[in-house]
Amino acid sequence: MKINTSTSSVRVNTFKLIIAIVVSEMAGILGSVFTTPSIAGWYAGIVKPALNPPAWVFGPVWTTLFALMGISAFLIWKKGLDRRDVKIALGIFLGQLILNTLWSIIFFGLHSPGGALIEIVFLWLAILATIIAFAKISKPAAWLLAPYILWVSLAGYLNHAIWVLN
Question: For residues 38 and 113, is the Cβ–Cβ distance under 8 A?
Fold first, then answer.
């Protein structure tokens, strides 16, 4: 009797991909719990820099970035949790995901641009650490995080400008 391991492997990888994307998107959903109520209230009333994108841009961009993060994490996860480097890389990834959510809580939930500015520095460094750890395992996984670090760099600029202007 021959077992089709190829079909089983595809199912396992499909499941891992879905889980990785869902976990990443859940971080965004959790952050949006604190973001959404502030958009029409507190955030609408503060002074924003000239380069601030329109509010409607943020939702699609973050949804895309969280999906890319999930795909990136999947590419690492499928290398095998039996590998120490994979466990470490995914641990760093989960750490930056937590920091991402915390930024929304601090900035939008607590209305603290100054606190969020400090936090976004740690988030940016955690994303960089994730990219470095991922690059050692999968170059495509690392490259999938490039738009994320670029967007967080822009967010850091915006956060700083909002802190200065307000």
Answer: no
